[in-house]
What does this fold into?
Amino acid sequence: MSGAKIKSLMTAAFAYGLDDSRFHPVQNTDNSLEDVGYADMFKRERNRFNVLKRAVKDCSVDGCEIMYKPFEHIVSAYGKSSKRRYAWANVTGRLGIPHTAANGKVKMVSGNTVGVMSDEAVLKLLSGSVFLDGYAAYLLYERGFGNLIGAEVMPGDQPKFLYEGVRNDADFRNIRGKIMYNFLIFAVATEGGGFFRLKPLEGAKILTDFLDGEERLVTPGMIRFENKLGGRVAITAFDLDNNSSSAVLNYKKKEIIRQTIEWLGREPLPVYVKELPNVFCIFNRSKSNDYAVVVIISLCSDPFNSFSLDLSGEWNNSRIQLLNSLGQWSSVPNEKNNSAIKINEKLILMDPVILKLTKK
It folds into this structure.
């Protein structure tokens, strides 16, 4: 681990509400401070940490909700064969989409989460806004909820596709081109993964398709559906467990997932990091709703001289300040273009940028 990495982890923890910590940058050897990077980082950052903790004290974390049930191990014991219970966090957390662990309007559900939910709880879930990965959708279909999720769902067999394509250009904005790689057939490095076959019901809209090498349709890749309960459901055919392939994490999919979440929630996300890859975003909304704190952490090895945020209408005209290393809120150069705000501040690997939005 590096000083930069521990700085990012501590910044994220404080942004999520951890109000105190003990930091031991030493080791139990005869040279206890062999690596001075940790101590030097903490000396530089302690003022900023303290101001961040105070700034988010009266805030709640906002965004889509990564659903988690602490007793999921009842249906799938911990171990090599267990499904990762927070798989969506590894997707939204790298696509610049803020998420929370509670009270989010759009629920992101993967793995065995629904396995410990009663029928009543499932009905409540499906009467709201929910984004399912293929495995969660399959479990719901097997329990008889296919009519409410908009599809029959079956385990996928050997992949016979190389691409995923947007079916209708009009369904999404700000996407150049229609074709994405889909290399599930190549289980090499980060590529590979599992999928489920979706057979959409009447009324379900197919958003993307898995395509063969000649770009011919093989099976739907993502659908959305509005059910008789008034709920909105989206399904990706991918099993997101341990899936960090280019089929899930790419520039087009970044926008597709963002816009699908906004369709599900019937409103824009409060903030979204545009265009850049591998960016983690945390959004804290004050209980008074007059200011917000945004933490942005680049997970990309490429540095950027600036970055752009899409802000929802209520935050679009906010005053924007940067929390500097001295622990002071200072003005930051920015340029406005409709809902997008270009922040002229460098974004560097594991060097968090902390912004404060104050409504005028």
User: Anything to note?
Assistant: The mean pLDDT is 93. The chain has seven helices and 22 strands. Helices lie at 3-15, 37-56, 89-92, 119-126, 134-142, 146-149, 251-265.
